[in-house]
Amino acid sequence: MARLRAPGGCPWDAEQTYASLAQYLLEECYETFDAIQEAAETGDTRNLREELGDVLLQVVFHSTIAKEKGDFTIDEVVAGVTEKLVLRHPHVFGDKELKTADDVLNNWDDLKKAQQKASGKVEKEKSSILEDVPVHFPALLEGQKLTKKAAKVKFDWENVEQVFDKLTEETIELKEAIKRDEKNGNIEEEIGDLLFVVVNLARKLDVDAETALKKTNRKFRQRFAFIEEKLKTNGKSPEQSDLQEMDALWNEAKKA
Predict the structure, then answer these.
(1) Separation CA 234–CA 205 (nearest Å)
(2) Which among 65, 177, 182, 230 is placed 20 to 30 Å from 116, CA to CA?
């Protein structure tokens, strides 16, 4: 990377900045996310290996720019995360006893705050505990993180059945909004409320909502591709088919 950015190297690489690379880091992370789902479904990890390399390239790219600017080096990045791993696992590298994964997670935030204070890092004063959750997260991930934070201070349903009750309530409210044919944004709001409850249901069941929906999206892609391929074999396109025929092929795809 240093060679690519040096005089006589690559003009595109040479002109990149932290900001200009941000979108690529995000894209590579999403592609890695998809590769993880593929590896989980098929056992083939070749794409995962490649995508992890692309993520690593972004880390190296940013670190190379940082070294040029005198901000930090790749060695400091690695040393920093190594130190963090050691400090935040006192039950492994120290004498503290933490028996379960929940114990580890509960201890994590306290350790994080203590280490930030010890390092002299100036923490921005927060008016809400929810400010720790980035507003630019994907909506499902943001919703899950927000409610997880709230649950830590006991603002949460006591059990899953109560979440199902809320799900029924929000469904009824959405149906009523649709019946009224409201054009002032109420339908959109009710859809949001319904999705938010589903996100909470996933959290209560220890399911990552973002991963769950991504898997379903992937499943939909595969099954619809099956429909398209079957129709193509018969000399037809989806536009030339009808719902009854495509629904039958969908069921065939499910069995396959």
Answers:
(1) 43
(2) 65
Cβ pair 163, 157 in contact under 8 A: yes
pTM: 0.70
Residue 208 tokens, joined: 């990552």
Contacts of 23 (CB under 8 A, 6+ apart): none
> Percent of the chain at pLDDT above 90?
71
Neighbours of 87 (CB within 10 A): 15
Contact assessment for residue 238 and residue 230, using Cβ atoms and an 8 Å cutoff? no
**Long-range contacts of range 10-15, CB-CB < 8 Å, 24 or more positions apart?**
13/61
Q: Which two tokens stand for residue 199?
A: 């996100």
Amino acid in position 134: P
Neighbours of 216 (CB within 10 A): 10
- Distance CA(157)–CA(52), nearest Å, equals 38
Phi-psi region of 70 (alpha: psi -120 to 50; beta: other; left: phi over 0): left
Q: For the segment 37-52, what is each residue's pLDDT rounded down to a tens digit?
A: 889 989 999 999 999 9
Distance CA 65, CA 17 (A): 7
d(CA 198, CA 163): 8
| Domain ranges within the chain, ordered by starting residue | 219-255
201 within 8 A of 164, measured Cβ to Cβ = yes
Query: Smallest Cα–Cα separation from 50: which of 61, 64, 35, 65?
Result: 35
Residue 222 token pair: 């595969």
Residues in the chain, how many?
256
Tens digits of per-residue pLDDT, 139-177? Answer: 999 999 999 999 989 999 999 999 999 999 999 999 999
Tell me 121's DSSP state. P
